[in-house]
Design goal:
By secondary structure, this protein is of the alpha/beta class. The chain is about 40% helix and about 15% strand.
């Protein structure tokens, strides 16, 4: 089979989506070396980075072509996979499969009126992907229903294939990570959140809940908001100052090396996920794979994905969130139970 894969974001997407696509690509190349692969980088200058990315994954016998994305439209393929919610160019021949992860841009449009054009452009991108694809792949039944709702796609055209965890990164054998010394400024004990500072992630409510928790929980505890970045501190300065938690919350940027994130999962007291809209919700499962007990919201795909392996809270109530987190922190047996369930 001549199989094409759109890899225009494979190198620089440091989110969970990027980790999923890179892990799937590695598995494709290892499990199906008999295919002829056409991998499409964003442009000519990105080709060396894609070559470096896949250098250890492919069998020497595997036939690989790494091309710039504009060459896709003139390439003869049997099938082409588009993993990033978009289908910009179709191959000359073959079927097109696009993965649409969620409909967050429709459920949470940009609030700033100056971004109305960005909103329109993003919506057009999704509609184009749905129109041009022979089949839409998505990652939960919740996302499938949202795609039907917002893109008016028949259910028969959508296939649900759940995400998985790369256990070479986030294993349930935490011995080495549990003994690792965290670099400054990270120090135990801490709660961990992984995600961007978008409306769907519901980070302000978590900060309010953490402020309530700090008033009643008598032991030292900090909150690490991995991937939100220091700009997030400035956006939520009022909550941090009013709650007296400015010195207890860290906002590290996303990093290309997953080693530190893996250590943080392993050594967290709890993993907290307050999101109110997820197509899937990869971080809770990564945390579970690393042995961390999980508390999370009950919105969107979360019950479908984490089942009974997490303790749920009301994601719109800072008081209930704080109470649920506290109940887990105060009960070692409960933490062990949910770590085991995860």
């Amino acid at each position: 089979m001549r199989l094409g894969i759109d890899l225009q974001s494979a190198v620089d997407d440091l989110r969970g989506m990027g980790r999923v696509v890179r892990s799937l690509l590695a598995q494709f190349l290892q499990d199906y070396p008999q295919h002829e692969y056409f991998l499409f980088a964003k442009n000519e200058s990105q080709i060396p980075a894609v070559e470096n990315l896949i250098s250890s994954w492919a069998s020497p016998k595997t036939v690989l072509h790494i091309l710039a994305l504009p060459e896709l439209r003139s390439t003869m393929l049997d099938a082409c996979w588009y993993p990033w919610n978009r289908l910009d160019l179709k191959p000359k021949t073959g079927r097109a499969f696009v993965t649409i992860h969620d409909m967050a841009r429709f459920a949470f449009p940009y609030k700033e009126w100056l971004r109305w054009w960005d909103q329109r452009k993003d919506e057009k991108q999704y509609h184009q992907a749905a129109r041009l694809a022979d089949r839409i792949l998505t990652i939960s039944q919740f996302s499938a229903s949202e795609i039907e709702k917002h893109l008016h796609v028949p259910a028969a055209q959508i296939a649900v294939i759940y995400n998985g965890i790369d256990t070479s990164l986030f294993s349930a054998n935490p011995a080495a990570e549990a003994d690792a010394v965290l670099p400054p400024p990270f120090q135990k004990p801490y709660l961990l959140f992984v995600g961007a500072d978008s409306g769907a992630k519901n980070l302000p409510t978590l900060l309010e809940a953490f402020a309530l928790l700090k008033r009643t929980y008598k032991k030292p505890i900090s909150l690490i908001c991995w991937g939100s970045g220091e700009a997030c501190r400035q956006r939520h300065q009022n909550i941090l100052q009013a709650g007296g938690i400015a010195d207890s919350v860290l906002f590290p940027e996303l990093q290309s090396d997953d080693t530190l994130l893996r250590q943080l999962y392993h050594q967290a007291e709890l993993f907290v996920f307050p999101s109110i809209y997820e197509g899937f919700g990869l971080p809770p499962l990564e945390a579970m794979a690393a042995g961390a007990p999980v508390v999370c919201s009950r919105f969107a795909s979360m019950p479908e994905v984490v089942g009974d392996a997490a303790l749920y809270f009301d994601a719109k109530s800072p008081a209930n969130m704080a109470e649920t987190i506290s109940s887990m922190l105060e009960n070692e047996a409960l933490r062990q139970e949910y770590s085991h369930r995860g």
